[in-house]
Every structure is written in structure tokens, then in C-alpha cells.
Amino acid sequence: MAGGVLVYVRADKRAKQHIEYTSQKEVELFDHVTHLIEGFQEIRLNQQRSDELYTDTSEISQTLNESKVSTARLYNGNYILSQSYLYAHLAAIVFVLPQLIPTYGDTITEITLSIVFIIGPLGVVISSIPAYFKANIAAEHILDLEERLDQMRQAATPGEIEHIDSFKTVTLTDVEFAYEAKNQLEQFRIGPLSLELHAGEILFIVGGNGCGKSTLLKVLSSLYRPDKGTLKIDDRVVDGDTIHAYRELFSAVLADFHLFNKLYGLQHVDPERVNALLKRMQLDQKAAYVDGRFTSTDLSTGQRKRMALLVSLLEDRQIYAFDEWAAEQDPEFRKYFYEELLQEMKGEGKTIVVVSHDDRYFHLADRVIKMEYGLVVPTRA
Q: 311 CB contacts (<8 Å, ≥6 apart)?
């Protein structure tokens, strides 16, 4: 028994080291899952970012899987080892002692054998029943999720994605979109509405809170698929064959944006350019770009928006969408955003859609449209 304890303790020490390593990998995997959930909009607008994040997540997942299997084998081996020593010890008591001690009764031997060799396996079987039930329920949920995802899959596969090099007009015609709700009274919808976005213009979307500005922006960028109506780029309908290429036109900083600590989807980024943009955004005292990552994303809301804007500029897309970007900025940086940065981007041929409440800067837009109760009301051309 002393020898068995010694062997078990040494093996258990190895298993604990594996558990600690597995826990670290689990934290990394959870971080990537958080990126996938909170950053799904940025991921869907950038296929290359999606592919790289998928590869990164797959590698960590595979490492975690191998670590879990290895740890399980160690613990199973330890369990078998401990059971082997236990039964060897009991066998010695049951079979050896009667030979050494003649007064050891036959009845005690039979009872001992019955208890030891029946209760153990029976306990294992009974304790396994809840695990099997949980496994069946989990498998049903996974199959249900896969079925729902298959039903929603209407887009082209990554290998079939085309590219749109340029465009003249994006057109929404009689578009309607509604969020899911338990009843019609609670359901918020926009439309029917029609809208044109011309290449190279600055378009402001304005209106009161809750009027549907952010929803319209997501429908325009095809993050939300219209329930009714059509979305076209020039003469082509944005559908399952073109939706990926259409989304690749956009770079967005939305109200519920997610900030990655790594520039997923951006190849061969010049660190000097990134750090120069950090300085331009007045973030060089808070973070730096080192070894392909930002040293910190622990920033205020306004600073996080500046970093998200920085990443958006690095993407260099044809259409930029900003949802109340300047809301948390100080007056100086707000003025810089509207009067300098947007005009500079327009000079580079970019198309810009801005959701804004800053009426003092409305004159800088080529067009301003107003939303009321989910409908578009043109204010001026």
C-alpha cells in the first residue's frame, strides 16, 4: 500500500501539471470565442480577418483538445492504478489471510467478496447514468444548432467569393427589416424605405434616439438581411452569390464595435505606420504596436473608438460606416474628425456614411437624410 501511494502521488503530480496547462489554453480559447461573438460584425465585413481568426482559434482548439485527452489518459491511468492496488490489497486480505490464520471464517470471506466485487461495478454503472443523459441532451442541442445554421447558410463558400473593384451606386428599394419579438407591439422595424448611396460622397444619417439609424446602417452594410425589398450595388442584387464581396467593400466602427488586440485580416502591416496613426489618434501614450499586437486595449470608450478608427483606416476599404463615432470624443477631436479626417478620406475617393447627432457639422455632408419612426425623410440634397 505504501508503494502504491508513492507511485500514485508521483503520477498525480504529472496530471496536475497537465491540468494547469490545459486551464491556460482554455482561457486562450475563451478569449478567441469572445472575439468571435463580440466581433462578429467586424469579422463578417472582412473575410481575411475571419480566415485568420478561424485559423488561430482552430490551432488553440486543437492544442487544448490534445491536452485534455492527454490529461484524461493520465487520470484514467491513475484511477486504474489505484484500483489495482486496492483490489490486490483486498484480495490479499480475503485469500491470503485465511491461509495464514485458520480461524478466519468462510462466511466472512464470502460476504467480503460479494460486497467488494459487486458494489464497485454497480456504483460505476449508476454514477454513469446522469453523464449519459447530459451527453444525449448536449448532442441534441449541437445537432439542432447545426440544422439551424444549415438553413441560414445562403452565402457563397469562401472559395467562391468574388471581388467588387468599384461601384457607382448602392440602392435600397422598399427595404424592410424587423427584429424578432414575442409580439407585434414589442417588435421594432424600419421601412419600407428607399435610399441611394453614391460613390465618393459623405452621407449623414440623423434623427432622434431609437428611430432606426443604427439598424439602417447595418442593413446598408448587409450585416442585417432585409426581410423585404432589395439591396443592389449598381445593377446587381446583393444576394447569396454577392454578399461576401459586397461586405468586403465596408469598414465600420459601429456602436457595439469590438476591438481586437491583433490586426486580423491585415497582412504585412508597417509597424511604423501603425504607431504613427496611434500618435495621430493621441493614443501613443496609452498603447503601442509591438510584435503584431497592440500592447494594451484597456482604454476609455472614446480612446477605444479612436483605436477602432485607426484599424478601419488601415483596412483601406471603399465604404466607411461610422455610428455615432464622435459621441465620446472631446470637442477638439470631434472637430478634427468632421472637418479634417472625413474630408481627407473623401479626397481619397472614399464613400462615407455617418450616423450623427452633431448638427453643427451637418453642412460638411454632401447629403443629410433624417429618420423618424423607422422611415427615411430627406432633409436636403
A: 259, 260, 263, 266
**Nearest Cα to 345, choosing from 242, 229, 251, 275?**
251
pTM: 0.72
- For 282-316, write each residue's pLDDT tens digit: 999 999 999 888 999 889 999 999 999 999 999 99
The span from the first CA to the last CA of the chain, in angstroms, equals 90
Q: What distance in Å separates the CA atoms of residue 36 and residue 27, rounded to the nearest whole number?
A: 14
CATH architecture group of domain 169-380: 3-Layer(aba) Sandwich (3.40)
CA pseudo-torsion sign 127, 133, 136, 142: negative
What are the start-end ranges of the H helices in the chain?
A: 2-38, 40-44, 47-91, 97-100, 106-152, 213-220, 243-247, 271-280, 301-315, 331-336, 342-347
Measuring CA to CA, which residue among 258, 344, 356 is closest to residue 308? 258
Phi, psi of 349 (to 5 degrees): 90, 10
Give the domain ranges of the chain.
Answer: 2-158, 169-380
**DSSP three-state, residue 267:** coil
As a whole number of angstroms, the distance between CA 8 and CA 30 comes to: 32
Helices 271-280 & 301-315 angle (0-180, nearest 10) = 140
| Contact yes or no for 203/354 (Cβ under 8 A) | yes
Handedness of CA 145, 148, 152, 157 (dihedral sign): positive
Looking at residue 249, what DSSP letter applies? T
